[in-house]
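FORM 7B: Structural annotation worksheet

SECTION A. Query
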Amino acid sequence: MNHQFYTRKGNMTISETISNRRSIRAYLDAPVSTEDLEKIVEAGRWAPNAGPYAISVVRNPEIRQAINDRAHQAMLNSPVEFLRQRAALPGYQPLYSAPVLILLSGPANAPFVAINTAMAAENMILQATALGLGSCLLLSPNSALNGADNADLAGKAGIPEGNALQCAVIVGHAAPENKFTYATRAPKGTLAYVD
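SECTION B. Predicted structure
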């Protein structure tokens, strides 16, 4: 596949793609085309990196549901109050019923693995935005797929043995009503120029 990135909604500049990106937390029950999914995954593979990482694309609904349920249970039992409160919201599901779950993992002891996978995730999220699809970065699947107690499900989800899940991206067609997504966005972080 040619490693250029594609747009369907006109020809958005990279600045427009970045500013149009939203964390989508509600999805239509509609599949993502194989062509679009290949473009999204390919964008992740072209991310800057400093070491190995693996991408596992989970479309199987039973495996996605098992990951969702295990993550939800872990959130309900979390020592972190925010996670417990979020999981207790009526109708809350950690994977937000997205039809595609992309898992990014790497060797558990590899340096820079968190950075490598985060860069790949960002590329995939921006490509999904350029294609007119919704996406969201997730950490909740980590509690469902990392550790010895979760090795069975991690294997079914395509995570290579010896790898630890670092983050995940969900992708799909955004639903019109999205009660778990914030309505507005603003730039974050502090800024300093040193001249």
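SECTION C. Observations
The longest strand covers residues 163-172. The chain has one domain: 23-172.

SECTION D. Sign-off
Analyst initials: ____
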